[in-house]
Structures are given as C-alpha cells and as structure tokens.
Amino acid sequence: MKLVDILARELEEWPLDCGSCVQDYDREVRFSHGAASDFFAKTLADKCPKIAAEDGIPYAGRVTRAEWQAARDALLALEPESVAWDGEGLPPVEAIVELRSVSAQVHWAKAKIKFASYNVVVWEWVGEPAMNPLCTAYVHSLEIRPLRTAEQIAAEERKAGIRTMMDEIGFSSSVLSNKDCEILWDAGYRKQEAK
What we know:
By secondary structure, the protein is of the alpha+beta class. The protein is 31% helix and 22% strand. It has five helices and nine strands. It is extended.
C-alpha cells in the first residue's frame, strides 16, 4: 500500500507548518519541521526506490499535504456516513460514539463501533493513531454515548464553569446564588489566576 493511502486512512488532520512527511522502516511517519507531530502508522507502506536513491535512506515514500488532502477527500467520498444512534440500547456497527471506562472515569474519546453484543463491545479509536487498532471491553465496564453537538458541549462547559464559580465563591446551592453565578458567567466573568 502506498504511504499516501495509509495517511488518508490514519491521519485526521495535517500538522501546521509541515510541507511533507516520510515513513521509515519501523512505521514511524516523520513530518518536516515538526517532531511533535510524528507518529507510528498501523501499516508499513511499500518502499519507494526513488526516495531511497535520493536520500540514501530506505523511506517508504514522501507525501505532501496536497497529495494527502486529495487522497483523504477521495477516501471520505467513498466512505458511508456514520450510522446514527440516539443513545438507546447498544450502538450499531459503524456508529461513531464517545466512550470511556466506568472504573477509570477518564475523558470521553471518539470511537467507531466494530461489534456490539450484550456482553462485549469492539471499537477502534477515531483520530488517534494507535499501535493496536481494535479495542475490546465488556459492556458493563464502559459508558457509551452519542457524539455531542457543539451546543451540548458549550452547555456542559457553561454548567461546569458555573458550578466551579459557586464552589470557589462559597455560595450554597440556593436558587438565588445559582442565578447570580449564571448571570456572571454569561457576562463573561472568569477567575483570573494570580501572577
């Protein structure tokens, strides 16, 4: 498989200020001007003799942002849209959802469901290159929810900010103090960190 095809599948967003990238023998994708963006692809691309001859290093091809964008657009045009799920029952196969571990209570992350039964869920992470593409867990050990809209995310951030404001001011949970904090939050007031 060509490197451009691998990147179209695995790379959600091209790093800023990077003109091109290469992949070396251990699957590491290296971007020009940005070691922070480098990652290990799931697949090793076919070797490109032309690139190896130029650099003397057996890179598996060089890809520019324009080549990646064209391949990504073509791939997305072929892929079916994500399957909708309203949060009732188990998510259908190919649904893109947010999930997290019940016990760890870590942040929510995007995942694409590959299999779901009443005992087990199999998924792959969306937008996060990983060494192990498929993950498995018992249903009871996961929290799964539909993707949130931008409005839902903003409402949750607002609610959390107001709750933090009330805690830091020392208000009780009375209706009046909650309303006061809502007014302050909506007016743009935020805690300023001391320097």
